[in-house]
Every structure is written in structure tokens, then in C-alpha cells.
Design brief:
By secondary structure, the protein is of the alpha/beta class. It is built from 6 helices and 28 strands. This is 2,3,4,5-tetrahydropyridine-2,6-dicarboxylate N-succinyltransferase.
Length: about 280
């Protein structure tokens, strides 16, 4: 089915609400979408040079993912002597050696409807949710999460316990985007549609949300989300977690500080040398 025709079918069955339940054409449309997502032919968001953020959201894809939850029934999914229960429309994906995806033993799971490209390394235990897109050569390290519809670029390293937030509703909301060659440090969290541009580095413990101001110590600017734009980390920025003192009221009296991520430099040869361990691990 052509993508345009698939979009029309998904939008029609999603608009039908509960009436789509037990509809064979609705299930067929969903399964076609799930297959297209897993092959990478369809994405929840995709690069678009003409878009304000340089990314275009495809709301109909999110509608299709939500349609899958509506159509699915709870089913036991035994695995390795354990029993799991989930919607039968979203079983765990299975990979063959020919797929070129390295899934190290130890409890990782990739949900149906997620795209995982050749050369991706999955270190246990990690989780990739439906609608996510993980591009070539990325590493998803132990205890890392790639949420629904999150977009992960080529050669990204999501370090241990990093959390890349997902979003399904509202359907027009931008997912989190991590562009090519980004290093996300351990215990980082990127949420609420934030975009991390190509080559950026987030030091361990950095948390970014739509409401987080980002202090650029190099340019002297404060980067914030707006009504039209999410928080955007500039290309090659090196971001570290910081703090700023509360200067009034009880906060000042008690000597409190608030979390404040800061750009301390922009990536250079020295920073690149510190990330060459990536290649050895692959």
C-alpha cells in the first residue's frame, strides 16, 4: 500500500473511534503501518529543511500507533520461562543475525513498531518503545530508554540509564529528537520534544525539558522553548548540569540553588578525542 493511501486508511479508522474495534480493515491498516515503521519507510517525525525546527511531525503515524492500542487485546507472551501480558498488537520484536542489530543477552526489549537500523548495539537491559526510530551505528546502553516516537540519529551513544522521553498525545506534539553523532551521558533525561542538534554532548546527569532554560556561557544567551519551538540544543554544544543561586525570598535566606544546565564550550578536537572510545566498543 502506498504511504498516501495508508495515511488515509489510518486517519479514517482512527476517526471511527471504538467502532474500529474488531474491524478487519482497521487491523490490516494498522499492521501495514507497523510493518512500515519497522522497516523505516514511515516515521513519526522526519527531517524537513523547510520546517521551523528542521523536523516535520507526522500526526497520522501517531494516530496509527494509538489505533494499535485500541485494536489490541491483552495476551500472554511467554519468554524464557517468564510470562508477560501486553496488547497482542505490540509484541516484542525478534531479530536475526542478518538484520545486523547487536542485542547483547540480558533482558533488553524492542517493541513492535520500532525501527532499529543495522549496526545498532543494544546493551542489556534497555528498552525501545513503539514508533521509535534508532538509526545506524547508535548504541543504546544499559538501563537506557528510547520512548515512543523518539528519533535517534546515526552514531548516537545513549549512555547507561539515559532516558529519552516518548510522546503519543497530543498527536501533533513533537517527539524528542537526538540528531547524528550526539553523546548522551549517563543518567541524562531528554523530554517534552527537546531537540539535541548534531554533534552535541550532554554530560552525565543533564536534564532537559520544555521548561528548562539552557544557559550558553559561550555566547551569553539563554536558550528557551517558545510557543512555537521546543528547547533546542545547538550543534556541537557541550552541556553540563549546573546550578544558579536563588536571589530573593526564602530561597535566598536558606541558601538554595536551582538546577541550571549550561553550555560550557562547543565541541572541538579535544572533545572528539574523549569520545573515541565509542569506536572501540563497537
Amino acid at each position: 500500500m502506498a504511504t498516501h493511501d495508508l495515511q488515509k486508511e489510518i486517519e479514517r479508522h482512527f476517526a471511527a473511534g471504538p467502532a474500529a474495534i474488531r474491524s478487519v480493515p482497521a487491523m490490516d491498516a494498522f499492521l501495514a503501518l507497523r510493518s512500515a515503521l519497522e522497516s523505516g519507510k514511515v516515521r513519526a517525525a522526519q527531517p524537513d529543511a523547510n520546517a521551523l525546527t528542521r523536523w516535520r511531525v507526522n500526526p497520522w503515524v501517531k494516530q496509527g500507533i494509538l489505533l494499535g492500542f485500541r485494536l489490541g487485546a491483552l495476551e500472554e507472551m511467554p519468554a524464557g520461562g517468564l510470562s508477560f501480558i501486553d496488547k497482542d498488537t505490540y509484541p516484542a520484536r525478534h531479530f536475526a543475525s542478518g538484520d545486523g542489530v547487536r542485542v547483547v543477552p540480558g533482558g533488553s526489549s524492542v517493541r513492535a513498531g520500532a525501527f532499529v537500523a543495522r549496526g545498532v548495539v543494544c546493551m542489556p537491559p534497555m528498552y525501545i518503545n513503539a514508533g521509535a526510530y534508532v538509526d545506524e551505528g547508535a548504541m543504546v546502553d544499559s538501563h537506557a530508554l528510547v520512548g515512543s516516537c523518539a528519533q535517534i540519529g546515526k552514531h548516537v551513544h545513549l549512555s547507561a540509564a539515559s532516558q529519552i522521553g516518548g510522546v503519543l498525545e497530543p498527536v501533533n506534539a513533537s517527539p524528542v529528537v537526538i540528531e547524528d553523532d550526539v553523546l548522551i551521558g549517563g543518567n541524562c533525561g531528554v523530554y517534552e520534544g527537546a531537540i539535541v542538534r548534531k554533534g552535541a554532548v550532554l554530560a552525565a546527569g543533564t536534564i532537559l525539558t520544555r521548561g528548562t532554560p539552557l544557559f550558553d556561557l559561550v555566547t551569553g544567551h539563554v536558550i528557551r522553548a517558545t510557543a512555537d519551538l521546543p528547547l533546542i540544543v545547538p550543534e556541537n554544544a557541550v552541556v553540563v548540569p549546573g546550578a544558579r543561586a536563588v536571589t530573593k525570598g526564602k530561597g535566598q535566606e536558606w541558601g538554595l540553588s536551582l538546577y541550571a544546565p549550561a553550555i560550557v564550550k562547543y565541541r572541538d578536537d579535544k572533545t572528539d578525542l574523549s569520545t573515541t572510545l565509542e569506536d572501540l566498543l563497537r
